[in-house]
Amino acid sequence: MSKPACTHLDQIKNVTPSGKGCKECLETGDTWVHLRMCLSCGHVGCCDSSKNKHARAHNAQTHHPIIQSVEPGEDWRWCYTDEVYL
Questions:
Q1: Comparing C-alpha atoms, which of 26, 66, 60 is closest to residue 46?
Q2: Residues in the chain with pLDDT values less than 50
Q3: Are 11 and 39 in contact (CB under 8 A)?
Q4: Are 84 and 78 in contact (CB under 8 A)?
Q5: d(CA 58, CA 84)
Q6: Could you give all domains of the chain from N- to C-terminal order, each with its CATH number?
Q7: Contact 23, 16 (CB under 8 A)
Q8: What is the 3-state secondary structure (H, E, C) of the chain?
């Protein structure tokens, strides 16, 4: 069986992270578990294990499809739209 393909690789850009933590959590003084960076614009948001799930909320608002983990030692990407790891 072939691995499901991502159809959004053309939307990956050379981005600069929006900050050293979750943008929204830093603005409200909240906490997060892990961080994810949008590869379309550089927005850094908290993961689905965090109570606020700002990375997923960013995807829902902007439809930017691909995130990358920014956790030390992690080297993976995820496409929300195609639901596949890259």
A1: 26
A2: none
A3: yes
A4: yes
A5: 18
A6: 9-85 (3.30.40.10)
A7: no
A8: CCCCCCCCHHHCCCCCCCCCCCHHHHHHCCCCCCEEEECCCCCEEECCCCCCCHHHHHHHHHCCCEEEECCCCCCCEEECCCCEEC
- Give the pLDDT confidence of 59-80 residue by residue, as tens digits: 999 999 999 999 999 999 999 9
* Residue 12 token pair: 């990956």
Structure tokens that stand for 86 in this block: 């890259």
Give residue 83's region: left, alpha or beta (phi > 0; psi -120 to 50).
left
Instruction: Tell me if the pTM is above 0.90.
Output: yes
Query: What six digits make up the tokens of 62?
Result: 């902007």
Asked if residues 68 and 44 have their Cβ atoms less than 8 Å apart, the reply is: no
Q: What is the pLDDT of residue 51?
A: 97
